[in-house]
From TrEMBL:
<dbReference type="InterPro" id="IPR024932">
    <property type="entry name" value="ApbE"/>
</dbReference>
<keyword id="KW-0808">Transferase</keyword>
<dbReference type="Pfam" id="PF02424">
    <property type="entry name" value="ApbE"/>
</dbReference>
<dbReference type="InterPro" id="IPR003374">
    <property type="entry name" value="ApbE-like_sf"/>
</dbReference>
<comment type="similarity">
    <text>Belongs to the ApbE family.</text>
</comment>
<keyword id="KW-0732">Signal</keyword>
<protein>
    <recommendedName>
        <fullName>FAD:protein FMN transferase</fullName>
        <ecNumber>2.7.1.180</ecNumber>
    </recommendedName>
</protein>
<keyword id="KW-0449">Lipoprotein</keyword>
<keyword id="KW-0285">Flavoprotein</keyword>
<feature type="binding site">
    <location>
        <position position="299"/>
    </location>
    <ligand>
        <name>Mg(2+)</name>
    </ligand>
</feature>
<keyword id="KW-0479">Metal-binding</keyword>
<feature type="binding site">
    <location>
        <position position="176"/>
    </location>
    <ligand>
        <name>Mg(2+)</name>
    </ligand>
</feature>
<dbReference type="GO" id="GO:0046872">
    <property type="term" value="F:metal ion binding"/>
</dbReference>
<keyword id="KW-0460">Magnesium</keyword>
<keyword id="KW-0274">FAD</keyword>
<dbReference type="GO" id="GO:0016740">
    <property type="term" value="F:transferase activity"/>
</dbReference>
<feature type="binding site">
    <location>
        <position position="303"/>
    </location>
    <ligand>
        <name>Mg(2+)</name>
    </ligand>
</feature>
Length: 342
């Protein structure tokens, strides 16, 4: 069967019109995605922008900011400001950047608020752990170093931006707050460029800007024991959510204990393995998600609630206005703060 000439022309015009629509309609008004390995995790970025070229520049600016923060705060990079502080602040106060000072200041605020459950000096002992290699500090080393684990050893001069440690063995790590800080910075950059709808996450810390253009963002809380499953999916917009779990970085030791990356500063050991009977202690949590206006607060709060356990942790979130939590205990039961219960 042959098509008439007129029909062929019509079909060609239709295709041209569709192609035209594809380049003028879609490319100028679309979702942009990027994913990069930074800060020891995967950084995901999704945002709506009408101009493809500008969107590429915005993506570069956001990812560049994550890399800048990682270069300053990574404990694994010899050249980071954090590593320099850990090398010399034990000998006396040194001048630090206003950025590092403000993150340490915020960390100290949460140390006070949580009576030491959140404590960046956990690293004095925590830095001896290598979860990939299955290495931990032995009991004797932990006991010897424990007095140096205490946020009160941090002397921060908020005006002069100087910092020192009163115990020469003290070390700090900002892994419990830096990613939340970074997703906030990312959203600030997106806003500066006029972006109104975005989702940015770095591992367990996510910040949402606006909604998903007419519908909420759907954020999955991972099942703490089944990798590819969600334990819950929560619709959210214009907020931050941080999740702390014992399943992100861990190894199982010879006694069948889960040795993971969230430490109880009081014992110098991972928060859920320092007492016996993981599954019978109803206060013990294995996953904590905190929702609130920004990652600079939800990140340290999720770590704090994990260390505090269900009772004290949920009480802390109830006491703070604008924050909610979803937690999963060792028996895989899920609990919500009052604002989420409707
Ligand atoms: P992640 O997103 O890396 O899983 P979390 O918010 O769960 O982070 O915090 C865990 C990280 O916080 C650890 O990897 C460590 O760097 C740091 N950390 C562990 N225990 C504490 C603590 N008690 N106080 C402050 N920071 C901690
Ligand atoms: Mg956290």
């Amino acid at each position: 069967m042959y098509l008439s000439r007129a029909r062929v022309l019509f079909a060609a015009r239709l295709i041209a019109a569709l192609v035209g629509l594809a380049s003028s309609g879609f490319a100028h008004c679309e979702w942009h995605y990027d994913k990069q390995a930074i800060m020891g995790t995967e950084v995901h970025l999704q945002f709506w922008h009408e101009d493809g070229e500008q969107a590429a520049a915005i993506t570069a600016a956001v990812m560049g900011e994550f890399r800048r923060i990682d270069a300053a705060l990574s404990p694994y990079k010899e050249s980071s400001e954090l590593s320099r502080v850990n090398r010399v602040a034990g000998q006396g106060p040194i001048v630090v950047s206003s950025e590092l000072a403000s993150i340490v200041d915020k960390s100290l605020w949460y140390s006070d608020k949580t009576r030491g459950a959140f404590d960046i000096t956990y690293a004095t002992v925590g830095s001896l752990y290598d979860f990939r290699a299955g290495e931990r500090a032995d009991q004797k080393t932990t006991d010897t170093l424990l007095p140096a684990v205490n946020y009160r050893h941090i002397q921060l001069d908020r005006k002069k931006h100087t910092m020192g440690f009163t115990d020469p063995r003290t070390k700090i790590d900002l892994g419990g707050i830096a990613k939340g800080y970074a997703v906030d910075r990312a959203v600030a950059i997106l806003k500066q460029h006029g972006v109104q709808n975005a989702s940015v996450s770095a591992g367990g810390d996510a910040r949402l800007l606006g909604d998903k253009r007419g519908k909420p963002w759907l954020i999955g809380i991972r099942h703490p024991r089944q990798k590819s499953k969600n334990a819950a999916v929560i619709p959210l917009e214009d907020t931050a959510i941080s999740t702390s779990g014992d399943y992100e970085r861990f190894f199982i030791d010879d006694d069948n204990h889960r040795v993971h990356h969230i430490f109880n500063p009081a014992t110098g050991m991972p928060a859920a393995t320092d007492s016996s009977g993981d599954a019978t202690d109803s206060n013990k949590l294995i996953s904590v998600s905190v929702i609130g206006p920004n990652g600079f607060d939800t990140d340290p709060l999720s770590t704090s609630v994990f260390v505090l356990g269900k009772e004290k942790g949920m009480a802390l979130i109830e006491e703070l206005t604008g924050f909610e939590a979803v937690v999963i205990d060792a028996n895989h039961r899920m609990f919500f703060t009052s604002g989420l219960q409707q």
